[in-house]
Amino acid sequence: MSASQAWLPDGRLHFQHGPIDIVIGAEGESAAVAAAHADAWRRFEGVLGELVGELAALRRAVARGSCPVAGPIARRMWTACRPFADNFITPMAAVAGSVAQELIASYERAGVDRAWVNNGGDIAWHLAPGSSLRLGLYADIGRLDARSVHDGIRVDGIVRLTPEMPSRGVATSGWRGRSFSLGIADSVTVLARTAAAADAAATVIANAVDVDDPRIDRRPAREIKDDSDLGEIAVTVGVPPLPPALVRRALGAGARRAAALKEAGLIESCTLVCQRQVAVVGPAGELGADDGTADMGCADAGSRTAWRPPAALARSPAGPGRG
After folding, report:
1. pTM for this model (two decimals)
2. What is the domain-level CATH number for residue 116?
3. pLDDT, tens digit, for every residue of 285-301?
4. Burial code of 249-281, b = ≥16 C-beta within 10 A, e = fewer?
């Protein structure tokens, strides 16, 4: 299967190759944007083969010591996960963000005012001076149904991103997402200085949103996907409604992990959502109106630095609040 590209009706560009599915938006001088798109496409065509060539090493747990992989994306994945090597983590925890980060480099040029690369909800962006982007959060994909898709998805909040903000990447993890999680968070959304760093951190924080309860359904990852890099590690496959106190305890554990990563300079902010409760770690940021529109974001990913919970969610007292 070869890589493909197509224009979407709204003017965004769609790249697809095997499991990699990317949507790109870019604005600025037409010649500069066209050149950036062409450069991104040339880079994208070789990404899957490059990663497959080192897949065996990328599925092994990150350990202290020298980086065992050679490709630029593979090395970025390993480097993003290295701060978490004291616990089991493989570079695959940062693959989507690392690919998005690789492609956004094509747009970091004169004449491109703003651009974003959305790799399944893990997003990297470029902003020239004076430009901005709005980024939307849909907190719980479990609430998504056919009617909401037909009528238009209303996001739970929006943050306005500017070039002065340090973050250049966002990622979301949770047990309902595309990748496995060890925790029970519906979503953990992280803003960080790079998309790769956000991707790794979102995985780690989502794993920490957890409690021991026999009602939570967990199964070895390999039983669900035989080639999973998590092997026999039990991952979450079902979470029933839990008592609010248990949810607060789980959110508190995740918020403490997020606060530690923020203190270490590994993330800028984090929004944690579990069963209609939310905890926020990080600065308030500049919020836009919750009008259901955003420049980028998708049904199970997106971010805001911190936000007033909509009616569907209740602010949890667990863990740190706004910094």
Report:
1. 0.86
2. 3.10.520.10
3. 333 333 333 443 322 23
4. bbbbbbbbbbbebbeeebbbbbbbbbbbbbbbb
